[in-house]
Design brief:
562 residues, alpha/beta, 5-stranded antiparallel β-sheet, binds alpha-D-glucopyranose
């Protein structure tokens, strides 16, 4: 990794590459804000909170799916790609939201789910009503079962959410699903499937959407030729060579070349970011200018709270940016992972990442005693100042700007995640990071903390009130105030892509780096205070006393002439 990247940033407000260093706020629409009292957040709820988003200072929002859906997988089971779930609103509500966000200078990114539809999609219903071998079945992945009457699945492959990856349809055929059985995989060898997704991209682009987050971008193209490899082989996914029959096959890039042509029909061109869980050496291709444009870098989300892990994650992200010719992305959490404040507040275990520790904590206990909330919040604040100070885009998951914790002890009957259902309750799944946001400390409206007049699903715990926006907005030391300050400063300071490691604080627990202009960052992953280099402290995640930065803290400095 070279020490310094070449500055490339242009400063026009209407840049074609606005996304390259954007702060993108992820909205999980069902748990963001509810205006109609059904306990499920809606599009009008997003519109009502545009002033909050503008005050926070984000450049864009990414909306997780809001399409008609049975919510078998939180909306990632899409019934109709070109409509809004009636429980969340209408297309007119969507247009109003886009206008309001754009009016506040905020771009809009929507989630596209091309790997699978829902089993309620018109195409899948037609496939079920049609004969084996029919045209309707070609849009999905149907195969004959084995044994008498096809009573056995075509092979022993398992789905990502647990249980077999094949579901019988009653006539000797089975369909393939990577995820829940309500999410049949589409057949991307089919020309109509390919053309229809381009129609969807144009549909939303024509409505003013600025970009797309592409779900499971590495899964569309599959090699299902027979004989099938056994599951013992197929379950090894982390391959650097594109040889896996289901993931990251080279053919997928041909699809994105076609999508790029669609994006480039618009001015500015539409943007896309890939969720591609692939070997880091293969991620750059998804992010290239000929492909989707950017790809998520999950290394920081998986990092342990230590200087070595963070340095590795930064080096890896910046190398990928160089390789792809794009910028990389930094994120600490999303709707699929245990909240960052909780991950960093659980005891560390040698040889295991915080993600793994949190998964076990959730499935075995999920109650508070093991969790040091204050420590987790302190580290999450420090981590935020790292991710927000790196070249590239920063993605912030809703509620992380409040330092929210995972709700680890949701009752089994309120769990919605198919992971919880398909594991027979052995795993809690992802609902604990999807509990609706607390907007006000007093549960004045119905039973929720300002989320909406009709309660919240899954229910908010009592302690959520302490994290409410109304409490934090007035407190200069709150995590919300820290994010607001950091985002304001970032907009001023982040003027080019330069980055260089420094050794101004020689301590194995400390990372120091220089960014654009006079901007320097010191992150202390240890528990002892360290002396900061001479300079002006612009913002810090914990109070700097006598020029010393406490443990588990990050500071941004202005060091002229360094
Ligand atoms: C992605 C989404 C996740 C969803 C899965 C299947 O990984 O982020 O929430 O369950 O795809 O669509």
């Amino acid at each position: 990794m070279p020490d310094t990247l070449v500055p490339t940033r242009a400063d026009s407000a209407a840049r074609r590459d606005w996304w390259q260093n954007a702060v993108v706020y992820q909205i999980y629409p069902r748990s963001f804000a509810d205006t109609d009292g059904d306990g499920i957040g809606n599009i009008a709820g997003v519109t009502s909170r545009v002033p909050y988003l503008a005050r926070l200072g984000v450049d864009a929002v990414w909306l997780s799916p809001f399409y008609p859906s049975a919510l078998a997988d939180g909306g990632y089971d899409v019934d109709d790609y070109r409509d809004v779930d009636p429980r969340l609103g209408t297309l007119e509500d969507f247009d109003t939201m886009v206008t309001a966000l754009h009016g506040a200078g905020i771009k809009v990114i929507v989630d596209i789910v091309p790997n699978h539809s829902s089993d309620r999609h018109a195409w899948f219903r037609e496939a079920l009503a049609s004969e084996p071998g029919s045209r309707a079945r070609q849009r999905y992945i149907f195969r004959d079962g084995l044994g008498p009457n096809g009573a056995q699945p075509p092979n022993d492959w398992q789905s990502g959410f647990g249980g077999p990856a094949w579901e019988p349809v009653g006539d000797g055929q089975w369909y393939f699903h990577h995820f829940a059985k309500e999410q049949p995989d589409l057949n991307w060898d089919d020309e109509e499937v390919r053309e229809d997704f381009k129609r969807t991209l144009r549909f939303w682009s024509d409505r003013g959407v600025d970009g797309f987050r592409v779900d499971v971008a590495h899964g569309l193209v599959k090699d299902l030729s027979e004989p099938f490899a056994p599951w013992s082989e197929v379950s090894v996914v982390d391959r650097p060579d594109g040889s896996h029959p289901l993931w990251d096959r080279d053919g997928v890039h041909e699809i994105y070349t076609g999508w790029r042509r669609v994006f480039d029909e618009y001015d500015p061109p539409r943007f896309a970011v890939a969720e591609a869980c692939v070997h880091p050496s293969r991620r750059a291709r998804y992010a290239s200018a000929k492909g989707l444009g950017q790809a998520f870098n999950f290394e920081m989300q998986d990092a342990g709270w230590c200087a070595a892990d963070y340095r590795k994650a930064v080096d890896s992200g910046l190398s990928q940016a160089l390789e792809s010719g794009s910028t990389t992305t930094w994120l600490l959490g999303c709707h699929d992972s245990c909240r960052v404040a909780t991950r960093y507040g659980l005891p560390t275990e040698v040889g295991r990442t915080p993600v793994e520790v949190a998964r076990d904590w959730l499935s075995t206990d999920g109650a508070t005693p093991m969790l040091d909330r204050a420590l987790g919040e302190r580290r999450a604040r420090a981590a935020a100042l790292v991710t927000l100070s790196l070249p590239g885009s920063a993605y912030v998951y809703q509620g992380d700007e409040l330092g929210l914790h995972e709700v680890g002890d949701l009752r089994p009957e309120v769990l919605e995640d198919p992971i919880a259902h398909r594991s027979g309750g052995r795993e809690k799944g992802r609902d604990g990071c999807r509990v609706p946001l607390p907007w006000s400390a007093e549960p004045a409206e119905g039973t929720s903390f300002g989320f909406g007049p009709g309660g919240a699903q899954p229910p908010q715990p009592e302690w959520f009130g302490r994290y409410a926006v109304s409490v934090q907005a007035e407190d200069p030391d709150s995590t919300l105030s820290l994010y607001r300050t950091a985002l304001r400063l970032r907009a001023e300071l982040d003027t080019d892509d330069s980055f260089a490691w420094l050794d101004s604080v020689p301590d194995a627990d400390v990372l120091c780096y220089r960014r654009s202009g006079d901007w320097q960052v010191v992150a202390n992953f240890g528990s002892e205070p360290v002396a900061l280099p001479a300079g002006e402290v612009l913002v810090s995640s914990a109070p700097v006393v006598g020029g010393r930065l406490p443990g588990d803290a990050t500071a941004w400095l202005s060091v002229p002439g360094a």
